Amino acid sequence: MISDLLNNDFRGALERGKKFFQKYDYIRILAHYDGDGTSAAIILSNLLVRNGKKFHLGFVRDLSPDGFSKRIMEEPELPTIIVDAGSDQVKRVPEGHEEILVLDHHFYDNSKKDEMNINARDYGIDGTREACGATMAFIFAVFIEESNSDLLPFMISGAIADKQDISGFRGINKTLIEKYGKGIEQRHILNIEGETVLDALVYSLDPFIKNISGSLENTKKVLESLSIDINTRVDDLSRENCIKLARYIGYMLSIQGCQSEALSYIEKDELFLENGFSASALAKTIVANSEDGNNNIPVEFFLGNTSLKQEMIANRRKYETRLIDYISRSFKSITIEKNLQFFYAPGSEMTGAISGELMLFLVNQDKPLIGFNAGETATLISSRGNRRMVEKGLNLSIIMKECTAKVGGSGGGHDIAAGGSIPKGMERQFIEIADEMIGKQLQNLNV
Fold it and tell me: Which of 103, 108, 320, 381 would suit a FRET pair with 21, their CA atoms being 20 to 30 Å apart?
């Protein structure tokens, strides 16, 4: 039973959440728009359908106080489950909207803690590495009924979308996979994916290989130099050719200055799911549709509308093509400050994804990265660090929360990845404040 894996306080909170769930016949779900939030939405949507409940599903991109409150108050009369967001935002919701259940894993100020705010961090769980929004949705669904454990693939896709699979799953994520993943096959593989080896390398994002990812001609030349037929199916690669490719990718990533965190993407223990997807393919497909504003497509597909499969897969390829282009363009425009580096994203909807890829595979590994997405009146921010920086004291959640506030904005998130919003035109002031604060956090980095 799921209860056996949780402490008393966590079980108590879930019991209150279960009563909330059972009380209503019509529930609104509000999920963060990204791959983790969409994976969580798939879990909750299936849970509601299986229990004969009507629901309305929406996705939240703007987590600023005004943006979040406005979204909540669009339908203030509806009981609402907020997932992969909410712990730090719900306190700003106007009085009179009490019927809210939050399932979250982000840092938050719990000075005004609500019993219906169920956050992994309140129960001794690391919400950055051991539990994501989809983890919380899965635990909730299985707590409602153990048979919902078949929704495990979407917990896994959410964790992968939040990079919680790096160097292997940990904590409650690992425990849940071990307990409920009996039908999942695990194989150690070279981390490339596609119909052919040419296709796999040209579209490779994890890892992102400079001058290979996105370049058909360069990839053909590399495969020719390695004596590997470009039309070889990935599943048919010989052990010898897998070794040659792994060595080449490792060499290229080393030249790029990648550290162990990025090098771990060369090969991996892949999970092959009972729904016909590998865990990585499922996560990448959900992420691509989510980041492109097509969140409803994977949700509807995994609710049973199989006619959407080709559109869902095609959306992934279009997204990856555009993202690779944006990464390359952004890399050329990086501005380096004393303690941080920053860029303006060419694609408004992809700042977070661009920031994550650049930080992991391409930019200076001693300075966190800030990505700006300038809108008409506000500029959205995505920040990324790495494990080494966090171990030395970096906490981007604090940076985003405090530095955005000083220029009239708001922010928060994880220690290694966080976001925020500031008034347009305040980017330079924000950079100066953040540069100083990051310098203080990382003063021992090079010791």
Answer: 108
